[in-house]
Amino acid sequence: MPDKSDTTTGTISLVFGILGCFGVGACWGSLIAIITGYMAKGTAGEKNGRIGRILGWIMLCLPIIAVIVWIILVYVLWAGVWWPFGP
Fold first, then answer.
1. pLDDT digit string (tens) for 1-55?
2. Are residues 12 and 47 in contact, defined by beta-carbon separation less than 8 angstroms?
3. What is the pLDDT of residue 63?
4. Half-sphere exposure of 5 (CA within 13 A, CB side)
5. Could you tell me which residues come within 8 angstroms of residue 33 by beta carbon, excluding any fewer than 6 positions away?
6. Segments in the chain forming alpha helices (H)
7. Among 55, 37, 54, 35, which residue's Cα sits nearest to residue 46?
8. What digits encode the pLDDT tens for the residues 75-87?
9. Residue 17 burial (CB < 10 Å; 0-12/13-18/19+)?
């Protein structure tokens, strides 16, 4: 059982979540933010851990969403060029 007065894991989660947003260790920083954010549940650092978890999940999902949007845009804009059956 974690110490109820411990704020360390929540602070670590928040710091790595913010660093992930600025591109400093985007992938591993986000993973650390998510893991330590879940570890901070039930402690005094729970609010910092929640914010760190949110930032971590956003920074993990944002590149995936960007690739999907890019593929859709390429398909829509160049569909006439790539589509073998004509416009």
1. 566 777 889 999 999 999 988 888 778 889 999 999 999 988 888 899 999 999 9
2. no
3. 87
4. 0
5. 13, 14, 16, 17, 20, 52, 53, 55, 56, 59
6. 8-21, 26-39, 46-77, 79-82
7. 37
8. 877 765 655 555 5
9. buried
> Tokens representing 22?
């600025």
Rounded-to-integer distance, Cα 82 and Cα 87, Å:
10
The amino acid sitting at 55 is L
Which residue type does 38 have? Y
> What are the structural domain ranges in the chain?
8-82
Specify the pTM.
0.76
Give the chain's length.
87
